[in-house]
Specification:
CATH topology: Protein-Tyrosine Phosphatase, Chain A
Structural class: alpha/beta
Number of strands: 5
Number of domains: 1
Largest sheet: 5 strands, mixed
CATH class: Alpha Beta
CATH superfamily: Protein tyrosine phosphatase superfamily
Strand content: 15-25%
Shape: globular
């Protein structure tokens, strides 16, 4: 199973090359639209700011959005890649990759999945609010939140990159 984390500027190229079955787009309200050719079977767009806690005038990731993400990824078989795309590929997309990994691998240690994500995406700083909602929805009893806290802030962001997070089947 291949989860591909892409910045918005690279998503069309990534989709053309990887031919994913699913594309998860995480966009900020008012963010310029990056046209994506319809080469995927399923697309979900979630509109939210990249914030770790609710803030006046900002759209925070909420439980309903994360529930929609989990419903969307539950339909992903893993036969073809799933691409998750946000503006830079640092916070929201890595959070989604971690959430999907936890969903698809209920037997796996959250700490091991977070550490594996950090190895392939050194700049990853998964959005903690997204992870907290997923932790509750997946019944992980705070272990997802603890795992993300444990890996801490990622390496300094030096530029937009695409990375792949390979997930062994359960």
């Amino acid at each position: 199973m291949r989860l591909i984390i892409s910045p918005a500027s690279e998503v069309t190229r990534v989709c053309r090359e990887a031919r994913p079955s699913h594309l998860l787009r995480l966009v900020s309200p008012g963010q310029p639209e990056h046209r994506v050719d319809p080469i995927t079977d399923a697309v979900l767009t979630l509109v939210m700011h990249d914030i770790a806690q609710p803030s006046p005038g900002r759209v925070a990731p909420d439980r309903a959005m994360i529930h929609a993400l989990l419903e969307f990824s539950s339909g992903w078989s893993g036969a073809r890649p799933l691409v998750t795309q946000c503006w830079a590929g640092v916070s929201r997309s890595p959070a989604c990759a971690f959430i999907i990994a936890c969903q698809k691998r209920p037997d796996a240690s959250e700490r091991e999945l977070a550490a594996a994500l950090r190895r392939v995406v050194p700049q990853a700083t998964p959005n903690p609010l997204m992870v907290a909602h997923a932790d509750a929805l997946l019944g992980r009893n705070g272990r997802m939140i603890a795992a993300v806290h444990e890996i801490g802030r990622g390496a300094d962001f030096t530029g937009l990159v695409c990375t792949e997070f390979h997930l062994a089947p359960a």
